[in-house]
Amino acid sequence: MTLRSMTGFAREAGDTGPYRWAWEIKTVNGRGLDLRLRLPPGHEGVGEAARQLIGKALGRGTCHANLSLARAEQTPVARINTAMLNGLIDTVKGLALPPGIAPATLDGLLSVRGVVEIIDDADDEALLTRLAADVEAGLTRALAALVSTRTAEGEALAAILSAQIDRIAELAAAAEACPARQPEAIKARLAGQVAALIDSDRRLDETRLHQEAVLIAAKADIREELDRLKSHVESVRALLAEGGVIGRRLDFLAQELSREANTLCAKAGDASLTAIGLDLKTVVEQFREQVQNVE
Q: Is domain 8-73+127-150 in CATH 3.40.50.2000, yes or no?
């Protein structure tokens, strides 16, 4: 599966009879899937289907989905109820009219209630059913375009993250190979720190001095941090290869990388190793910022 960004935009519009409708969907970063749906009054029935479609298409992010709907002004259509009109004509023909009463005219018969019916498309159930189907199909197309946009951004994001994790691996390797980590250099620094400890307090007994020396040595050892950095780098690479909805897991690993980089800097005890640690912290922070965009 490919990596997808959480940011994207799509628009889909169409016409159904006298209606002009349009979907606009915008997504931004979010911890989970947060759907904010806006529908025109009287069309809330579209909401449930829209939520299901969006939930299937998106895994994470804040989604603003807006449906706009406008109805064109139309001249009402008049329809004559011919059965009723013919019935009236037959009835009138059979009547014996009193003197002075004129026979019924066509316009008079047409004015009888029910003979002429005014048809309004807004009351046509078939039209409303077709409108709901077209709007749902339009949302499906809009979501497909949105996912395509998020996927394209995700591919670019994956390249950036891969380059950053490679740089993190390079800096971890540089820290491991740093001359300051050679046994002779570590021994010299420890000897200097122990000597300074003795000078500061000559009353230290041999046991206490041994404990302090062990503590100094433990603080100077970054082996565990380097091993964990290597493990986290491998985990990140595995997730990038897996793809899909991995943003929260990447965010967790970014936090772990940051923790190890901070600890490495705190333990450095040497200018060259500190410089590597600061570079590592910078790249890890950049990595963590980019991870916030991953679905």
A: no
